Amino acid sequence: MPQRIWTISNLLSVSRVLLLAPLAYVLYSDIPSRQAWLAAIIVLAGLTDFFDGFLARKLHQVSELGKIIDPLADKVTAGGAAILFVGAGLLPLWYLVVVVVRDLLILVGGIYIKAKKNIITQSNWPGKVAVFFIAVVLLLAALDNPSLEGTRHFMMWLSVVLMGISFAIYVQRLFVGRLSEKRSVR
Q: Of 86, 97, 134, 141, which has the fewest CB atoms closer than 10 Å, so is most exposed?
């Protein structure tokens, strides 16, 4: 029986990516209450990230497609937003490089595992926590308040540590665990 594609949870995941357009518009415009609008868009994106998984489980809409769309939406949204914020001078380039390189490595690893073992890799909780802290960094950058500069720097470094931890868990769980299963079966 084919799975439904356009479930509420999958629509929420896709909407997170679509929020990059209004984020870019507001970020590069001179509209009144710009910082409040940026903050609202970032919070809304964070809520879609929480509710897509919550509703998928609650409404019994967990699907193989959703397991792909949700983490892909996280990666595209986080990377896209980081690119926009670096372009606007609100985040340093090195932070963008960390976010994008980690996500590209996870994406390539997921494609490799799918090809080798036909397994769709799911997000892990440390990865979700890392994405949450990336959103906090974006929120603090959007507020662009000099009194929050120390907090933003701390959160940037905390999110980098969390990205590293989630990446290490990802590598251990998938590459060490999944690929070694094949060897032990022989």
A: 97
- Tokens 């380039």 map to which residue? 93
Work out how many domains the chain is built from and give that number.
1
Q: Report if residue 186 sits inside a domain.
A: no
* Ramachandran area for residue 63 (φ above 0: left; ψ -120 to 50: alpha; else beta): beta
Q: Please say if the pLDDT value at position 175 is more than 70.
A: no
CA–CA distance, 63 with 171 (Å, rounded to integer): 23
Give residue 120's region: left, alpha or beta (phi > 0; psi -120 to 50). beta
Cα angle at 152 between 146 and 157, to 5 degrees?
150
Place of tokens 């609202």: 40
Question: Does residue 1 form part of some domain?
Answer: no
d(C-alpha 33, C-alpha 156), whole Å: 25
Residue 159 is predicted with a pLDDT of: 96
Per-residue model confidence (pLDDT) at position 172 = 84
Which structural domain, as residue segments, surrounds residue 97?
8-180
Q: The pTM is what?
A: 0.85
Region 111-127 average pLDDT:
77
**Residue 82 belongs to domain with CATH number:** 1.20.120
